[in-house]
């Protein structure tokens, strides 16, 4: 349960200082006076978004049941947020996978295609969904609890196959022949991998045995490279959802895995030499081909200044020479929520306006963990935002006070971009 503290003395003054604080916090230039203003898309722009929508359930098949009749309030709130932001390309994290695609179809038919709270319906004719490592038994005792059948022994933490999966929706055609997935890439095959160490021994990187490392996969869910055709130009959508860097011990096995899951994309877009060790699930080697446009999307469970990530993991992307991270999306709601809750948020070094997730204020507090990071080449980053309305905004009810969760404990994050370069028509 997320325990809420009493509102601080900042409540009476927060509305007065939010605008000035955001204005002074350059480069958080994507905020606007109201959420409706922030959601105005520039002419000719492509809107790309990521949303950890908490569309995961505790039992296999439960999400399909919840999507059945269109009356689930949490899913309706998630859908209304999507309809208000209206992304052209949307990655949803924590969407339970089923092999028949029944959950996806019901989500599209019963929620997105139905106007929520007088919003305009939104339709995505193109989609990609694929298996996730979560909940798939490895036959190994990865968490050293004496059993090989628990959620911590799966290739990715999960109580059933596909829990916490991913879904990509697009209003533009997807090049299915060009898709690459990296779900089976082994962690030990990454040069210099931060493999965890059993601190009770003198050996290095020995928390996992050799037999375990022979099957241990890097991706806790998966890594996808999904090419999308936009008006004759190809955009590589690079999607992932690294494991949280917590729920472990002194060996830091989750923190290290999170670091290297993030590093995977840094290497993938880093050029031929840096990416030459990478192989995909079809046995093809190497990273991003050519010098095409790309965007990195997802919940990366890593804040640039706060939280528990290992070795400033997300800076591998934010400081990457091929990635445009100069414009940081922000919100009034994130700043206000931090001021109202206080506690752990007071100790944070990062600017609260850039937070994207509303976590327990007793610890770790609100964090920036969800990202839309376009490439510098062949793309112009115009602006972006975080769907986190303040209490003064009419849409605040879609995110609520944090507990109980209305839609998700994460916020939808978007970026408006324009593609540059030659058009191709084949």
Looking at this protein, list some descriptive labels:
single chain, 426 residues, alpha+beta, Deoxyribonuclease I, Chain A, six-stranded mixed β-sheet, five-stranded mixed β-sheet, 16% strand, globular, disordered N terminus
What does this protein look like?
This protein is of the alpha+beta class and 426 residues long. The chain has a single domain, classed as Deoxyribonuclease I, Chain A (4-Layer Sandwich). Helices cover 20% and strands 16% of the residues. It has 10 helices and 11 strands. It has helices spanning 11-24, 35-38, 62-66, 73-85, 102-112, 210-213, 253-268, 272-275, 315-318, 332-341; strands spanning 46-55, 89-95, 126-128, 166-170, 180-181, 223-230, 233-240, 293-299, 370-374, 379-386, 413-419. The strands form 2 sheets. It has a 6-stranded mixed sheet, covered by helices on one side. The protein has a 5-stranded mixed sheet with strand order 5-6-7-8-9, with no helix packed on it. Helix 1 crosses helix 10 (332-341). The longest helix has 16 residues, at 253-268. The termini are far apart. Mean pLDDT is 91; it is low at 1-29.
């Amino acid at each position: 349960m997320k325990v809420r503290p009493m509102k601080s003395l900042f409540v009476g003054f927060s509305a007065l200082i939010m605008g000035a604080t955001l204005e002074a916090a350059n480069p958080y230039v994507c905020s606007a006076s109201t959420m409706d203003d922030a959601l105005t898309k520039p002419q000719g722009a492509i809107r790309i978004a990521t949303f950890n929508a908490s569309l995961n359930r505790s039992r296999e098949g439960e999400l399909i049941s919840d999507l059945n009749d269109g009356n689930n309030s949490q899913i309706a709130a998630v859908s209304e947020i999507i309809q208000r932001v209206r992304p052209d390309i949307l990655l949803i994290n924590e969407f339970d996978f089923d092999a028949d695609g029944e959950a996806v179809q019901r989500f599209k038919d019963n929620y997105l295609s139905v106007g929520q709270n007088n919003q305009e319906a939104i339709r995505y004719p193109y989609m990609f969904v694929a298996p996730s490592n979560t909940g798939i038994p490895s036959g190994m005792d990865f968490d050293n609890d004496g059993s090989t059948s628990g959620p911590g022994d799966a290739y990715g933490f999960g109580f059933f196959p596909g829990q916490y999966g991913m879904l990509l929706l697009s209003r533009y055609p997807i090049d299915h022949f060009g898709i690459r997935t990296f779900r089976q890439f082994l962690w030990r095959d990454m040069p210099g991998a931060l493999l965890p160490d059993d601190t009770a021994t003198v050996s290095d990187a020995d928390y996992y045995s050799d037999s375990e490392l022979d099957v241990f996969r890097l991706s806790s869910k998966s890594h996808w490279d999904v090419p999308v055709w936009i008006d004759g130009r190809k955009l590589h959508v690079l999607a992932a959802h690294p494991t949280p860097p917590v729920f472990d011990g002194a060996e830091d096995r989750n923190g290290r895995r999170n670091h290297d899951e993030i590093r995977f994309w840094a290497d993938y877009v880093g050029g031929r030499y840096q990416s030459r060790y990478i192989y995909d699930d079809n046995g093809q080697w190497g990273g991003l081909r050519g010098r095409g446009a790309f965007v990195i999307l997802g919940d990366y469970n890593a804040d640039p200044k706060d939280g528990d990530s290992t070795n400033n993991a997300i800076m591998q992307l934010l400081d990457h020479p091929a990635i445009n991270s100069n414009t940081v999306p922000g919100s009034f709601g994130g700043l206000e929520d931090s001021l109202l809750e206080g506690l752990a948020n007071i100790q944070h070094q990062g600017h609260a306006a850039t937070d994207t997730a509303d976590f327990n204020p007793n610890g770790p507090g609100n964090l920036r963990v969800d990202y839309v990071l376009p490439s510098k080449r062949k793309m112009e980053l115009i602006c972006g935002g975080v769907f986190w309305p303040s209490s003064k905004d009419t849409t605040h009810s879609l995110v609520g006070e944090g507990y109980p969760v209305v839609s998700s404990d994460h916020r939808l994050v978007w970026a408006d971009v324009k593609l540059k370069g030659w058009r191709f028509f084949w």
